[in-house]
Amino acid sequence: MSPVVAAPPAPVVAPAPVVFGHTTVRIGPRTVRVQAEVDARSRLAFPVRRGPRRVSVPLPVGRWTLRVRAIGPGGVRMSAPRVVWVLPKSGARLGTTKGRLDRRLQADVTALTGRLPAISGVYVQHLLTGCGAGVNAGAPFPTASVLKAGILLDAVRRPAGASASLLDQMVLDSSDRAANQVLAIQGGGDGVAGAARVTETLRAIGLQQALVRRPYIIEETAGRPIPVETTAQPALFTNFVGSPYEMARMFIVIHRGALGGGALRTLRVGSLRVRSQITRRLLDVKDRTKLVQALPSGMPLLHKTGYTEEVKHDVGVIYTRSGPIVVAAMTWSASGVSDGTGDGFIAEVGRAALRRLSGGGRC
Predict the structure, then answer these.
(1) What is the rounded distance in angstroms from the CA atom of residue 329 to the CA atom of residue 146?
(2) Does the 92-357 domain belong in CATH 1.20.120.340?
(3) What is the value of pTM for the model shown?
(4) Residue 101 CA: distances (Å) to CA of 74, 75, 363
(5) Does an H or E element contain 218, and which?
(6) How confident is the model at residue 237 (pLDDT cuts 50, 70, 90)?
(7) Where do you find CATH 2.60.40.10 in the chain?
(8) Cβ-based neighbours of 280, under 8 Å, separated by 6 or more
């Protein structure tokens, strides 16, 4: 009678919820083949050497519910399911922080901003080649919800008790009330003190203009007074200020932090914390307008939008196969920027960036 051979132990997938091209899986003895299953669709199994070890499992780009099979003579064992964002392998290179002008992209962006019936600012850069363009990129704008990414940075850098659910509401749903609660928690019960702490974190990552003065103003629909304040100088009447260039730099810091480098490493915020608490949330932002409209289906975008009646913004990192591209597009008008005008402009900036930089650029 032949001895009974036990199935191999269940594989264990590495905990990072954001990976670049592959994930690491720990397998036990008696495993001879490994197979990934993404969203209940199996991918080709590949052989592995016997014995406990870590193996690299290649995965397609996208957001998946992942399970991994360990296959052996005695049967099959499955890992626990895990939601994972898979970004292109090219995104795993730190690349350069030095931008170089791509003249054709500069001409394209200049033409787009010139046609817009509002003040605008744009900054675009391929993060491996440095090629990019900028128009009015140093001008301060009311940032609206874009700086919720900065509040998230401070909450991860210096945890003070904000729950995961509250951070999700602030970033994924862009809730102003949740943002104010996080600011109060970061400030020990004082939202203004929390805002000062966020500004301190922005300075620590190298941003000199960007600032958070106070919590968000929650406007109620009833009982609003007739407006009498001046609106021609928006930077003087907003609690959240930043330029396209500095907002782009903030997202470059987040991207590089996910790779274990840059300013977040200096601040002792490790790559696993960045991926699990910051990158994952910014990849899952629910606003599907603006830059998202410029992207081919399935192309990942790490971003944060901002919008009021007067502003429409989107800032983030597009993960192309040739490497990541940071895009910041911001608009403002005292008379208002409609969704169609602002969102359409931002999408056109994204399309121009992809046309010129999806191959790396020619700067």
Answers:
(1) 11
(2) no
(3) 0.91
(4) 60, 57, 6
(5) none
(6) low
(7) 12-87
(8) 17, 18, 85
Confidence check: pLDDT of 227 > 50: no
Please state, as a whole number, how many other Cβ atoms lie within 10 Å of the Cβ of residue 44.
7
pLDDT at 224 over 60: no
Distance CA 204, CA 72 (A): 51
Distance CA 30, CA 70 (A): 9
Statement: 12-87 belongs to CATH 3.40.50.300: no
The two tokens of residue 129 are 């080649």
Q: Which amino acid type is present at position 248? A: A
8 Å CB contact between 59 and 33: no
Taking only the tens place, the pLDDT of each residue in 65-107 is 999 999 999 899 999 999 999 999 999 999 988 899 999 999 9
CA-CA-CA-CA torsion sign (46, 51, 55, 57): positive
Say if CB 27 and CB 13 are below 8 A apart. no
